[in-house]
Design a protein that fits this description.
Layout (H helix, E strand, L loop, with lengths): L2 E3 L4 E3 L2 H8 L2 H8 L2 H6 L13 H5 L14 H23 L22
Antiparallel strand pairs: 1-2
């Protein structure tokens, strides 16, 4: 019996090979990202806190792009939208058995998935 990953276009001949593939960082990145996604976002990738930056509002944030908080209402709204989209993608990947049901290590995306685990 073989396995096919429609996300990556990869075939696996054994369960062990399949398990190795679906736990790889490259595969997981494809679960959350597509080429279409990159062109539709206007703001930076969510940094961990889904709230507005108080320092940005007052005098400007010295952390700039490294700040964990959103620097505008539109950035915050986009972050929430991205989180919702990533949650949908993860649910579909789990349904299609492209992510192990007990896998909760998603690298840079892990903080976005807290409410699912």
């Amino acid at each position: 019996m073989g396995y096919h990953c429609w996300l990556c276009g990869k075939n696996s001949n054994s369960e062990k090979q399949w398990a190795k593939h679906i736990t790889s960082e490259k595969h997981k990145d494809k679960v959350f990202n597509s080429e279409d996604d990159q062109s539709c976002w206007q703001h930076r990738f969510p940094m961990g806190e889904f709230r507005l930056c108080e320092r940005q509002r007052k005098n400007g944030c010295p952390d700039g792009d490294k700040c964990r908080f959103a620097h505008s209402q539109s950035e915050l709204e986009e972050w929430v939208e991205r989180k919702e989209l990533m949650n949908l993608k993860l649910a579909k990947a789990r349904k299609d058995m492209l992510i192990s049901p007990d896998d909760d290590d998603f690298g840079k995306y892990s903080f976005l998935m807290k409410d699912l685990n």
